[in-house]
């Protein structure tokens, strides 16, 4: 049984007289019934009026036979006590307690006054959030926005952003309620007031679920959010900056220092007597409702993985742009993302892979593992057959790359690709030139070298984007293939992260040992191919 009890009579009267809406009255009376909040405002106001008219000494209640779910509470109590008798002029207005002589008649009279004064007014606490923005017309407006955005979703989570000054108004109203409870000799626990957001979601969730045809689910990846603002009362937080300047510091990407968290932090610090010197208690009613500034939809990211082969020696992995100037017309990333972005209808993407090759290096064999995060996709469901068709579309669009094993994966699964960057092995094929003539026997000894340990300083060619360090890497094995007196091909199996070009030419002695030092002559690399990236991910798919 959820009810407004006899002990709450003076609180109900105080709040209604001050212009508080019936649903906020329920919140301050610690009513935790979700179904009760969903009743029409006029019905709730009428019930509260009848409650105030009930005779003194009779256990009057406003109640419905509904289940009592546990509810979250909003902490408004400040740890310091004092100044309970003060408002902005130095005194909190007091009403006769429910148990005082002659209170029944006064309560009934005040109940009629409260009904008249509350009807049609913007709530002095929630600024209309629990009034107009709980009505079917607003719910339909939200759902029209959702449906017009053309998202795929099977459930939703609803979030709401409230103006920070609501916390100030809630504190002011709570100080009045606390004083009335003390006048009655009743305690008011710190966490007894139902959060505005919680009450709003109790009301709005079933309406949105019915209109959208899918359930509300706190774990859903599809978010519907509403951002409220109330320009008329924007400056009500500003006195807190004088009282608690440490709470309001400029931050990146914040248009104002008066964020909700900053205001809450300041309210926890400010003394009650200081608060009441600057803000009326109870707060006055505004002229205008809140504005619903934004109604937004956002789908959780979708992750696609696969392997790519790169057949061009004039194609970077990612866009090659220096000082705002594009050096090459395309990249592996762009050739793949163009199709994924179009099919998933995403806002943006993040590309990652198991290592990377230089612009002039081909990637052959079974390809290089890659993953792409598609941000805020409208479409999220693809069958295996649809993914095959998408893969084929990518492959048909260019002869520079090919993609295989294209599939949907989870965010956590991408970690398996990253694990292989340092711990797994890679195989390469390098075409090498030497300044002095060579015979087969001059390079044959390379085949017998196993687990050759290198010390590689950060190469000069990447020093502008990577920190200077000495990295130890292993050449697990090599196999030479003689071509002519100045050329041979070297097949290498190495630890991931080895700089192969520098191992060949030595990078002015920054990689030791190197092919030049092993052969006692100048060596350089003419071509390099990645033949395999030995990372066991993503899973191989049947053709």
TrEMBL record:
InterPro entries associated with the record: PsdUridine_synth_cat_dom_sf (IPR020103), Pus10-like (IPR039894), Pus10-like_C (IPR048741), Pus10_N_euk (IPR048742)
Domain Pus10-like C-terminal per the UniProt entry, residue ranges: 303-534
Similarity comment text for this entry: Belongs to the pseudouridine synthase Pus10 family.
Catalytic activity, EC: 5.4.99.25
Keyword tRNA processing listed: yes
Enzyme class of the recorded protein, top EC level: isomerase
Keyword Cell wall biogenesis/degradation: no
Cellular component GO terms held in the UniProt record: mitochondrion; nucleus
Protein's cellular compartments: Cytoplasm; Mitochondrion; Nucleus
Upper lineage: Eukaryota, Metazoa, Chordata, Craniata, Vertebrata
Molecular functions per Gene Ontology: metal ion binding; RNA binding; tRNA pseudouridine(55) synthase activity
Gene: Pus10
Alphabetical list of Pfam families matching this protein: Pus10_C (PF21238), Pus10_N_euk (PF21237)
Domain Pus10 N-terminal eukaryotes, chain residue ranges per copy: 123-297
A GO biological-process term: tRNA pseudouridine synthesis
Protein name according to UniProt: tRNA pseudouridine synthase Pus10
Species of provenance: Rhodinocichla rosea
Catalysed reaction, written as an equation: uridine(54) in tRNA = pseudouridine(54) in tRNA; uridine(55) in tRNA = pseudouridine(55) in tRNA
UniProt keyword terms in alphabetical order: Coiled coil, Cytoplasm, Isomerase, Metal-binding, Mitochondrion, Nucleus, tRNA processing, Zinc
């Amino acid at each position: 049984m959820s009810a407004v009890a006899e002990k709450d009579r003076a609180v109900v009267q105080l709040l209604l007289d001050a212009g508080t809406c019936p649903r906020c009255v329920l919140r301050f009376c610690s009513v935790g019934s979700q179904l009760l909040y969903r009743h029409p405002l006029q019905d709730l106001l009428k019930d509260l009026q009848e409650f105030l008219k009930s005779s003194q000494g009779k256990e009057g209640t406003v109640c419905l036979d509904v289940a009592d779910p546990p509810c979250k509470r909003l902490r408004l109590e400040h740890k310091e006590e004092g100044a309970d008798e003060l408002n902005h002029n130095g005194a909190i207005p007091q009403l006769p307690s429910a148990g005082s002589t002659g209170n029944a008649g006064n309560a009934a009279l005040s109940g009629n006054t409260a009904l008249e004064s509350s009807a049609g007014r913007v709530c002095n606490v929630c600024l209309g959030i629990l009034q107009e923005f709980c009505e079917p017309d607003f719910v339909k407006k939200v759902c029209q926005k959702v449906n017009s955005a053309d998202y795929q979703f099977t459930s939703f989570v609803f979030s709401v952003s409230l103006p920070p000054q609501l916390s100030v108004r809630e504190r002011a109203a709570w100080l009045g309620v606390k004083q009335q409870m003390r006048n009655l000799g009743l305690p008011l626990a710190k966490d007894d007031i139902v959060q505005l957001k919680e009450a709003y979601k109790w009301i709005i969730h079933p309406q949105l679920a019915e209109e959208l045809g899918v359930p509300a689910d706190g774990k859903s990846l599809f978010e519907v959010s509403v951002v409220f603002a109330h320009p008329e009362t924007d400056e009500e937080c500003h006195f807190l900056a004088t009282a608690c300047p440490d709470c309001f510091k400029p931050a990146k990407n914040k248009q104002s220092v008066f964020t909700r968290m900053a205001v809450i932090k300041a309210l926890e610090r400010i003394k009650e007597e200081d608060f009441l010197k600057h803000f009326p208690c109870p707060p006055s009613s505004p002229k205008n409702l809140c504005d619903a500034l934004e109604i937004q939809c956002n789908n959780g990211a979708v992750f696609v993985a696969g392997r790519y082969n790169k057949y061009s020696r004039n194609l970077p992995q990612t866009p090659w742009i220096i000082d705002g100037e594009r050096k090459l017309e395309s990249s592996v990333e762009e050739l793949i993302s163009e199709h994924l972005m179009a099919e998933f209808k995403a806002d943006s993407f993040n590309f990652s892979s198991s290592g990377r090759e230089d612009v002039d290096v081909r990637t052959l064999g079974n390809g290089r593992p890659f993953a792409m995060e598609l941000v805020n996709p409208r479409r999220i469901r693809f069958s295996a057959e649809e993914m095959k068709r998408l893969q084929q579309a990518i492959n048909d669009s260019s002869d520079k790359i090919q993609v295989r094993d294209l599939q949907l994966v989870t965010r956590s699964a991408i970690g398996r690709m990253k694990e292989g960057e340092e711990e797994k092995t890679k195989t390469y094929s390098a075409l090498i030139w030497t300044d002095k003539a060579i015979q087969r026997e001059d390079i044959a000894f390379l085949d017998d070298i196993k687990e050759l340990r290198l010390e590689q300083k950060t190469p000069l060619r990447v020093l502008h984007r990577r920190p200077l360090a000495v990295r130890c890497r292993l050449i697990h094995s090599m196999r030479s293939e003689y071509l002519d007196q100045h050329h041979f091909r070297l097949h290498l199996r190495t630890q991931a992260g080895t700089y192969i070009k520098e191992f060949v030419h030595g990078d002015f002695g920054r990689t030791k040992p190197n092919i030049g030092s092993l052969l006692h002559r100048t060596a350089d690399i003419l071509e390099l191919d990645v033949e395999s990236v030995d990372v066991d991910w993503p899973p191989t798919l049947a053709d």
